[in-house]
Structures are given as structure tokens and as C-alpha cells.
Write a structure and sequence with these properties.
Blueprint (H helix, E strand, L loop, with lengths): L1 H13 L28 E2 L12 E8 L11 E3 L2 E5 L5 E5 L5 E5 L21 E3 L2 E5 L4 E6 L5 E6 L14 E3 L2 E4 L11 E6 L5 E6 L15 H8 L12 E2 L6 E4 L4 E5 L3 E2 L3 H4 L11 E6 L5 E6 L14 E8 L2 E8 L5 E6 L5 E6 L6 E5 L4 E4 L11 E3 L13 E3 L4 E8 L2 E3 L25 H9 L2 E8 L4 E8 L4 E7 L3 E6 L4 E5 L5 E5 L10 E5 L2 E8 L3 H6 L14 E7 L24 H14 L1 H4 L21 H10 L16 H18 L2
Parallel strand pairs: 1-33
Antiparallel strand pairs: 2-39, 3-4, 4-5, 5-6, 7-8, 8-9, 9-10, 11-12, 12-13, 13-14, 15-18, 16-17, 17-19, 19-20, 21-22, 22-23, 23-24, 25-26, 27-30, 28-29, 29-31, 31-32, 33-34, 34-35, 35-36, 37-38, 38-39
Helix pairs in contact: 6-9, 8-9
Length: about 675
């Protein structure tokens, strides 16, 4: 009892201060930034909801978006208003007490842009500062809105609209600058991070993450010097012809005392280094953490987690800034658990590697050499030509974009971790197709029969992992079914909240991992939950919905409770009594056309479907988001009808592009046969 009282008093004291080293206290009732604070800890100092009271949490209110597709946002709560972005970058502002809509803003993104959005038309959140709301759009714009009315203040195109760039990440505001990156490496772009004047939208600086064509000369940007001196010598061949990649599509963190902005850099384009840089090399700044002066963009240091990445092991996963006692002294550190499976602790002033340990099993590298800071690769992991390699983690990663959290009370990081493996093999042959994925990796169709799907599910598991970063060891884990688990929130009530794919929000004891409460939303909660208080009442809020890359491309491997539906915001409070919506049951499979294709045609159809269709319509033709399930499509009934959308562009205005440059009628009919076979096998 004395220990619990001491912890309670400590949590109350922490309620008035930011986590270590971050200056003035934030208002205790708000969640004003993407990660709650500049260090992106996702720790709430609120403690009204604790281990003793969490069992009485109930739904306070819900708000449903007015359009389908994926939901990945972290909401913000500022001055009594909850701000959240939904599919297509639509922004909603709601009364944080009642959920009443105050305004919404639709950026009017052309539906055709969905064709080059690698992982659904999602948006991970907004930034709010000085009466403005900032949001990135899927077609590459950065917009500033009036926080009270939603009126558009300015809009800037941050990317070349003729190139397959997208924006899905949340902006960050530092002083009078708003930072935004972009995505599109699977399609062949060159990544960069930009800083815009928050008041006017004028570009202030830009940092390119990979070198361009040397024949074109310098970019005239702040990144010119480090690219020439550090990055360019690590590339070979004509890397610029395939884009290079290195998009900054998610993580950022800021240390105001050092005036350092830290950002994570993504994978290469193509994924296979032998294609983009035939002579080898580390390919800086791919899969790296980069530190720059926030107000100028001037390079300070970098650390590359996966030199010469060939596995899509991005370093765009969340960065957390805090202080740790290491070897008897306090260190200002940066922590990351990227896709490659190793947990990194760096000195954030210098970039010095302090420790690195794998937090899931890894088959591509045995360990990180502390003398060199480099992973020690296992022979064969780079899948030599003609030889598949079983790689762990798979391209899904040991931890993807879903945010983790840090608790100063327990000294633990809570990671939505994943264990998965996959065969990787060079594409034979490799050809570049405009507007398509060009990763250089051979596609592997997912079997459609129930037994094979069950085996595939068993090989992919997710768990909430409590990790001690000072000792680099696991403290506890909570296993849950399926692979795709959601973002995390830690609170002063000694609780950890986590959403999960398949639906629901769960609360765990932060010290032991015991599950104390759950609420079944049946819609996925993948972005980070938040906590705020108003009128002395603490709330927990989370965005929920179908969608995201896993629901688009691997829905057959995920638990499904009902029909895909519009997502929205769910808000809980102690004693909440609002009714929870129930899932709508799926209608039975309609009568199917007769299947006449032979085995070779079905195999060919599976390969074509995986190459061109799976990214939107789901592996094994099992759709999981707000896109049509081809097994239930009326177009499936007729060969002539089925070919019209992909060959004639019948549905281009709805985001379905023409594939006439890649597919012919025979190929489309083979795909149709594969979809019919899947419908016969899955029946759900």
C-alpha cells in the first residue's frame, strides 16, 4: 500500500511537468502535439483513470466519418476542440466534450491519386499551433486552416504533381516553421523533408535524403554539402534513374534545448540494392536517423540502422527523446525500434550509438557491432540471384508506423511489436513500369485455400512488448491474435492503452502487462490513442476504422468481424454509458460463374493479381477496406464486364486506373479466374 501511495504521489507530481528535459509544462488537459510533447513520448500525466478505476471505463461518445477507407490518425485536443484527420486528408473539428461537429475541411483530392498511394489514402494526423491547423494531403499539398472555422488560410504544393509522391504523415510545428515529408519510394521518387513558414506557407529550407543526378549539379538546398561529402560516395551506377527513394514519410522529434530536429528516412527505390546501386554501398541516407538544426536544416549527424538496405527496413518508425541513466550517468538519448528488429539507443547530441539489441528474432543480422555501429549480416540474407531467402522480420517489419510509448514511471518503452517471416527473391525479370510498384522483389501469391491461409496466419503474430531500454531487455509481453496491432499510450495511472487490428482498445497494467480492460469497437484502432481532461474529467480517445496497408494487401490474414464501414472517433470516460455500435454482418457470397480455367491459367492469374491488384483489393482477393471486394463484384459475372475497368478505364474517376499498358485481355481473364477460385475457397 505504501508503494502504491508513493507511486500515486509521483504521478501527481509528474502531471505538472513534461517528461525529462523538455522545458515548460504543457497544460495537463490538452493533447497538443502528435506525440503529446516535442520528444514524442506519448505519455499522458493524467491519472484519474488508473489500475483501480479503469474497469468502469465506458463509451462517452462516438463520431463517424462521412467516407470510407483507412484510418490511421492520432487525434489532437486543444482548448476543448478535438481535431482529427480521416481518409483522403479530410479534417474534422469536434467538441471534445460531446463530439458535436464544429467544422470539417475536404481538400478535394483527385480520386485518381489513390493509384499511387502505396498503403491506402490514409492520413496520420494534423498539427495545431497559434490558431492554425496544418495538414498534408495525399496529393502532396500542405494546407493551413483556421482552427476556429476551418477556413483555408494557405495551401502549398510540396511535391511535383507529375511524380507519384504522396503525403500520409502528420506535420510538425517548430517555432514559426511547419515540417512535412512525403512518400512514394515504391513508385520511384527521391525523398526529402521541407520546412515552410507557418504564417505564409513560403518554403524556408529543404533537405534531400539521397543524392540526385550528379550531372544536374547541386539542388541549391541546405542538403547539398552533406549529400556531396557523405552520401554520394556511398552510391554507384545510375541510381537517380530509379528515384533512389529515402522518403521521410512519418517520424520526427525535436529537442528545443539543442535546437535539433530528428527525422527517420525510409527505404530505397527499388528495394533491391543490386538494382538501384549495382556496385554496392551503404546508400546514405536510406534507413537512417538524421539530425539537423531545426531552424536552418543544417546537417549535424546521422546514424544508419540498415546500411545498403535490401529488405524495406525503413527507419521511419517513431523516435522518442528522453533521458536514461547508462553506465552510472544520465544521457540525453534518442530511441527507436525500426522495422529491422533492433532497438537503438543513441546519444542525441552526437549520434553516438549507445546500445542496440534485437527485440524480435532476426535472421538477416546476428547482432550490431558496437565498435563499428553496423549490423553483422548473416550470409545469404541478401537473396543472391535465383535464390530465395527466408527473411525475418519480413517487409512488414518488427515494428511498423504504429506509435510506441515511453513511461517515465516504469522506465519502459511499450512497442506494438510483430514477428513475421517471408521469402524474398529478386524479380525475374525486372522491368520498370510507370505508376506501379517497382521494388525489384518477386511477388509471391498468397494461397486461397483455408488450410494454407491458416498456416500463413500462424506464422505472423503481434504482441505488445514492454522493453527496458537501459538494460536492453524484454520485461513482459502480451500476445494477441493476428499480426497487425495498433499504437500505444502510456499514462500516469500506471496504464498502457493499445488499439488492435480486428477491433478494440485494451488497457494493461504498465508494470506487469496484465490486461485490465477492453472495449470492442470491431473497427481497427491502429493510430495512437490519446488522453485529455476537461472539467475535471479524464477521457481516452482513439481513431478507428478499416483500412491501411495490411487491410488492403493482407486482409485474408486478419480477423474480420463484419462489413467494412466508415471509421471515426471513439471517446471513453469513467462511467460512460453511450452504446457501442455493432458490426454489420457480411451478406452471403453471391452465385459464382463457372470456373473453366486450367491450373496454369490460375497460377498465371495469381501472379498477375499479386502484381497489379493485391495492393488495393487484398491478398487472395479478400478485400478489407473501403474498396470493392472483387469476389462479390457484379463485374465478375462476365468476362467482358470484368475487363472494362482495368482495360478501358471505366472507373478512373473513382480511383481505379487503367492497366492497358501492362495487361491484355488474356491476362485480365486469368485474373478473373483466380478471383473466382478465391471466392470458391474463402466464402467469407
Amino acid at each position: 500500500m505504501h508503494i502504491r501511495l508513493l507511486r500515486h504521489l509521483l504521478s501527481l507530481a509528474l502531471a505538472f511537468y513534461l517528461p525529462v528535459g523538455f522545458g515548460a509544462a504543457l497544460p495537463e488537459h490538452d493533447w497538443p502535439q502528435h506525440g503529446h510533447d516535442a520528444g514524442e513520448t506519448r505519455y499522458s500525466p493524467l491519472a484519474q483513470i488508473d489500475r483501480d478505476t479503469v474497469g468502469t471505463l465506458g463509451l462517452a461518445w462516438q463520431f463517424r466519418f462521412d467516407r470510407p477507407r483507412g484510418v490511421q490518425a492520432t487525434p489532437l485536443m486543444v482548448d476543448g476542440t478535438l481535431y482529427v484527420s480521416g481518409p483522403w486528408g479530410v479534417v474534422y473539428a469536434m467538441d471534445a466534450r460531446s463530439g458535436a461537429l464544429r467544422w470539417q475541411h475536404d481538400p478535394q483530392v483527385p480520386p485518381s491519386k489513390a493509384a499511387v498511394a502505396c498503403c491506402d489514402v490514409v492520413n496520420r494526423g494534423v498539427a495545431v499551433e497559434d490558431g492554425r491547423v496544418f495538414v498534408g494531403t495525399i496529393d502532396g499539398r500542405l494546407q493551413a486552416l483556421d482552427a476556429k472555422t476551418g477556413a483555408l488560410l494557405w495551401s502549398e504544393q510540396t511535391t511535383n504533381p507529375e511524380r507519384p509522391y504522396t503525403i500520409t504523415g502528420a506535420p510538425r510545428v517548430i517555432g514559426d516553421l511547419v515540417m512535412i515529408g512525403n512518400g512514394g519510394a515504391e513508385y520511384g521518387v527521391r525523398g526529402y523533408l521541407s520546412a515552410y513558414d507557418a504564417a505564409s506557407g513560403k518554403l524556408r529550407w529543404r533537405f534531400y535524403t539521397v543524392p540526385g543526378n550528379p550531372a544536374d549539379g547541386p539542388d541549391g538546398q541546405i542538403s547539398d554539402k552533406p549529400l556531396k561529402a557523405l552520401a554520394e560516395p556511398t552510391w554507384s551506377g545510375e541510381w537517380w534513374a530509379l528515384g533512389g527513394g529515402g522518403t521521410v514519410w512519418d517520424s520526427m522529434a525535436y529537442d528545443p534545448q539543442l535546437d535539433l530536429l530528428f527525422f527517420g528516412v525510409g527505404n530505397g527505390s527499388p528495394h533491391d540494392r543490386d538494382l538501384r546501386s549495382p556496385g554496392g554501398g551503404d546508400n546514405l541516407f536510406l534507413s537512417s536517423i538524421v539530425a539537423v538544426r531545426a531552424h536552418t536544416g543544417e546537417y549535424v549527424w546521422h546514424y544508419q540502422t540498415t546500411p545498403g538496405d535490401s529488405w524495406d527496413y525503413t527507419a521511419t518508425q517513431q523516435l522518442i527523446l528522453t533521458e536514461l541513466k547508462l553506465d552510472g550517468r544520465m544521457r540525453k538519448v534518442l530511441m527507436q525500434a525500426p522495422k529491422n528488429g533492433f532497438f537503438y539507443v543513441l546519444d542525441r547530441e552526437t549520434g553516438e550509438l549507445l546500445s542496440a539489441t534485437n527485440y524480435v528474432p532476426t535472421s538477416w543480422a546476428s547482432h550490431v557491432d558496437m565498435a563499428t555501429g553496423r549490423p553483422v549480416e548473416i550470409p545469404g540474407a541478401r537473396y543472391p540471384a535465383g535464390q530465395p531467402a527466408l527473411v525475418m522480420p519480413s517487409q512488414i517489419g518488427a515494428h511498423n508506423w504504429q506509435p510506441m510509448a515511453w513511461s517515465p514511471l516504469t522506465g519502459l518503452v511499450y512497442i506494438p511489436a510483430q514477428q513475421s517471416q517471408a521469402f524474398m527473391m529478386k524479380a525475374q525479370p525486372f522491368r520498370v513500369e510507370s505508376g506501379r510498384w517497382n521494388t525489384g522483389i518477386q511477388d509471391h501469391p498468397l494461397p486461397t485455400d483455408a488450410k494454407s491461409l491458416a498456416q500463413a496466419r500462424e506464422g505472423m503474430t503481434g504482441h505488445l512488448l514492454a522493453w527496458d531500454p537501459a538494460r536492453q531487455r524484454e520485461v513482459w509481453r502480451s500476445e494477441h491474435p493476428g499480426l497487425w496491432n495498433g499504437g500505444v499510450l502510456a499514462t500516469a495511472g500506471q496504464l498502457v492503452f493499445q488499439g488492435q487490428g480486428g477491433g478494440g482498445l485494451h488497457a494493461y497494467d504498465a508494470e506487469t502487462g496484465k490486461r485490465l480492460w477492453q472495449s470492442d469497437t470491431w473497427l481497427d484502432i491502429l493510430g495512437g490513442p490519446i488522453s485529455y481532461s476537461l472539467d475535471g474529467v479524464q477521457y481516452i480517445a482513439a481513431a478507428a476504422g478499416f483500412g491501411s496497408s495490411m487491410h488492403l494487401s493482407a486482409s485474408a490474414l486478419l480477423p474480420r468481424q463484419g462489413m467494412p464501414a466508415h471509421g471515426g472517433i471513439f471517446v471513453w470516460m469513467l462511467g460512460g454509458k453511450a452504446p457501442m455500435p455493432a458490426p454489420e454482418s457480411r451478406p452471403p457470397m453471391p452465385p459464382l460463374p463457372k470456373l473453366t480455367a486450367d491450373a496454369s491459367t490460375l497460377q498465371h492469374g495469381a501472379q498477375l493479381y499479386t502484381r497489379y491488384c493485391m495492393v488495393c483489393h487484398g491478398a487472395a482477393a479478400v478485400a478489407g477496406a473501403g474498396v470493392p471486394d472483387l469476389r462479390r463484384s457484379p463485374y465478375l459475372q462476365s468476362a467482358d464486364a470484368f475487363r472494362r475497368p482495368p482495360l478501358d478505364g471505366l472507373l478512373e474517376t473513382r480511383g481505379m486506373p487503367s492497366f492497358s499498358s501492362s495487361l491484355d485481355e488474356a491476362g485480365i481473364e486469368a485474373i478473373r479466374a483466380y478471383v473466382i477460385q478465391s471466392a470458391m475457397d474463402t466464402k467469407n
